Amino acid sequence: MSSSRPRVYLDISIGNRAIGRAIFELYTDVVPKTAENFRALCTGEKGEGKLGKPLHYKGSTFHRVIKSFMIQGGDFTAGNGTGGESIYGEKFEDENFEKKHDRPFLLSMANAGANTNGSQFFVTTVPTPHLDGKHVVFGELIQGKSVVRQVENTTVGEQDRPVEDVVITDCGELDPSVKIESGRADDGTGDVYEDFPDDEESATKDPQASLEVTKKLKEIATTLFKASSKDKALEKYQKALRYANELIPNEEQHEQLYNEFAKLQVSLNLNIALVGMQLGQYSVAIRAADAVLDSHHGKATDQEKAKALYRRGVSKSRSKDDEGALEDLKTAQELVPNDGAIINEIANVKQRIAKRTQSQRAAYAKFFS
Description:
The protein has about 375 residues and is α+β, with helices and mostly antiparallel strands. The protein has two domains: about 5-175, Cyclophilin (Beta Barrel); about 205-355, Alpha Horseshoe (Serine Threonine Protein Phosphatase 5, Tetratricopeptide repeat), CATH 1.25.40. Helices cover about 40% and strands about 15% of the residues. It contains nine helices and eight strands. Strand 3 and strand 4 (about 70-75) form a beta hairpin. Helix 4 runs antiparallel to helix 5 (about 255-280) and helix 6 runs antiparallel to helix 7 (about 300-320). It is elongated, with a radius of gyration of 26 Å. It is an enzyme of class 5 (isomerase).
């Protein structure tokens, strides 16, 4: 980071949910004209443009998202990638191609060919060297990787347009005196790790470091769960599982660490199944239990399999699939015959099935009488 370069921010929401702030540093020393265009469009200080719209990113959307490539926004006139306007008029020339698209989280100008820069921009999510010499790189993300990743991973429909609107709810320039910490800021839970493991340098140094970070995330989630902050706990358990799934080492090269990761995957999925079940997020619980039962790692004990079957069974029952629930619960009982919770749930499910059958018979009898 350079202290002399301006820093701007975009506050972003998906649907009606605020997902955070992305902060960029602009390369005013390399491409001053291009950088100034973006800075002024963040502040809105230039007023109304020639097309009759405010020269301001606030309220505009990311209209095009391609996973493992880039997220694109800045069309505040048409909102679909056909519009936009620079502070210099509708279009301006390519300033230079000194900076390359050699890594994720670079800020670059979208265009419709040579010398057609307006207000549209994109943020890379992987290296994109095929864009070198065609698009002007003018800045980089210095905080908010998880925000960009959330946009990158949002569901899209036709023409790569997000199904839910991805909106720049606010934007502007930060005062030079504001201190920006590199990396992810602590959200109050002790979690200082990026949402996606590829972006977290401390977790990708070696398999042991990966394991320690994953365990720390699990501890944070468990602390939240014990404090009855279940929504947040579920989010952190899912994040820990993402780390475990992506960072598990090669079994042949790191057998002991591989086994520790595999056990951690089972434990995390069981916790997700439990919290999902308690929160009424039954599809989440069922998927997590499926992962335990279908695990190719084969690390789940009979006790753990019984927990997964019980939690999946309860979730199926609450989702009005009593027959599927009964099958899971009976299988769980075979593994742990004397478990009181399983026995009680089987009785409850059987009672509901019997009551429903009786109601159906009464309805049929009335129909044919």
